[in-house]
Amino acid sequence: LTKIIAAEGAVVNLIKVQRLNDQSVHFDSHYVKANPYASVRYVQVELGSQYSITNFLSEIEANAACNVDGMYLGDGERILDLSYHMIHKGYRSESDILVRGALKDEARKVFRGTLDFRRGARLADGNEEENVLLLDPTVKSDAIPLLLSEEDDVQGGHAASAGKADAEQLFYLMSRGLSEEEATTEVVKASFQPILDLLPPEQQKEIQRDLARKLVSAHA
Question: 20, 48, 107, 173: which sits with the fewest CB atoms below 10 Å from its CB?
Fold first, then answer.
């Protein structure tokens, strides 16, 4: 359990990288209170464990902001359950959820994103987006976006996409001498790059090595 109380005007950045072994069960719960003019950013990387169940709940006061940037890779028979709930309570509060993922083998994933505009959150702005690459026909991916509002003058947007790696990108990379597995690895890395850019350089290198190992092997 992680609890963050961001005082007025505070700036908080939290990075969590989960690389547990394939026999682990991972439960992770987050609560954030962003007081007026505070800013909280949570960067989440999910690469390990057999079961990964995480949830994020944020209460955002006037002129405060809360951002979630997440990435995940599901391989083998891995199961991921990811839930994010942004509660806008104040005037001009802001939130943004950006999640990038990839699934292979027989992995399963559920993404739940909720933008919740409470009374008094006039001119609040919230967005959520999830993009997932489906690398095998045997994977299962569910996205459940939800928009709740008690206010009229707010902006809320959501987008979700799920599909195979771009065939033209794969062909281009393979024409330059890469194998299909190597080309797929590069496409996945490119998809994850907006999240990787938020991490320290050493962590980026470790995660890229993990991605290459898991994507090339039949089961890591």
Answer: 20
Residues 52, 48: Cα–Cα separation, whole Å? 8
**pTM for this prediction:** 0.91
> Which segments within the chain are labelled E, that is strand?
2-6, 11-18, 25-34, 39-46, 51-60, 65-74, 79-88, 94-103, 108-117, 125-134, 140-149, 155-163
pLDDT by residue for the chain (220 residues), tens only, comes to: 999 999 999 999 999 999 999 999 999 999 999 999 999 999 999 999 999 999 999 999 999 999 999 999 999 999 999 999 999 999 999 999 999 999 999 999 999 999 999 999 999 999 999 999 999 999 999 999 999 999 999 999 998 888 887 777 777 778 877 777 778 888 888 889 999 999 999 999 999 888 888 887 644 3
- Give CA–CA dist 118/12, Å, rounded: 23
Residue 152's nearest CA partner among 118, 108, 194, 197 is: 118
